[in-house]
C-alpha cells in the first residue's frame, strides 16, 4: 500500500470511529494538544499511576477527598487496560501527554509511556471538570478557556486535603469567570455532577484560598476576568500532582494538566438529577 493510500485509509477508518475512540487514536498517532472541547459528550479523566505498594494509600486519599479526586476507573495491577472506560483503551498511549515523576520532580513529559510501564503499576482515572462544561455550554454559559482555545487555568490553594499515608498536600482548583447571575446558574448545574467535581468549592476572593494572582496560574493558561465577572473555583483532578510533589513519591506517572484521557462514558450518564 502506498503512503497516500495508507493515509486515505487511516482517514476513512478514523471517520468511522466514535468521537471518543477517534480522540484516543489521535493520541496514539501523536496528537499532543489540550483536550478541552474534544469529543463533546464523552467523559474525560485525569490520570495518576502509582506502584502497587502505594496504590492502597492513594485509593484511601481519593476516598477522603472526593471533590478533587473522584475515581471513575481503576486498572488491575500491571494491566494498562480499563475496559469499563473503553474496550480498546490503552492507558500507555491514549493521552496526549504524560508526566513522569521521580522523588516528587517531573523528569520527562512523553507522549506515551510504553518505555515506563511496569508490572506493578496501578492506574487511577479521576473525574474531570471538562465533563460538566458540556452542561454549562448547553445552558448558554460561556467558557472562557474554550472560547480562547487554551488550557483551563489551575491554581494550588491553601485548602488542605485530608491525608492518607504519604499523600497530603494542597487542593488544586480550576477557575472559570462568570457574571454573577451565570455563576449562580453554574453552581446549580455542576451540583448535578458529583463524580466530576460537582459544585464549586469557592466563589470570588481568590486571596481567601491562597491565590495571589489570577494571571499567574500554577498549571494551564491565564484567562481574563472582566470587571463585571467573578472567578468561580472548582476542585481539580490535578490535585494528585501537587500531592505527589509534596510527598516526594519515588515514582509516579500522571497526565500533563489539561491533556486528558477521553473515555467512552457519556457525560449525561453522570448527572444525578
From TrEMBL:
UniProt entry tagged with the keyword Transferase: no
Keyword tags: Lyase
EC number(s) given by UniProt: 4.2.1.-
Entry's transmembrane regions: none
A Pfam family per the record: D-Glu_cyclase
Family matches, as InterPro entries: D-Glu_cyclase, Putative_hydro-lyase, UPF0317
GO molecular function, one term: lyase activity
Domain of life the protein comes from: Bacteria
NCBIfam families with a match to the protein in the record: PRK05463.1 (NF003969)
Family: Belongs to the D-glutamate cyclase family.
Protein name (database record): Putative hydro-lyase CQ12_12860
Species annotation: Bradyrhizobium jicamae
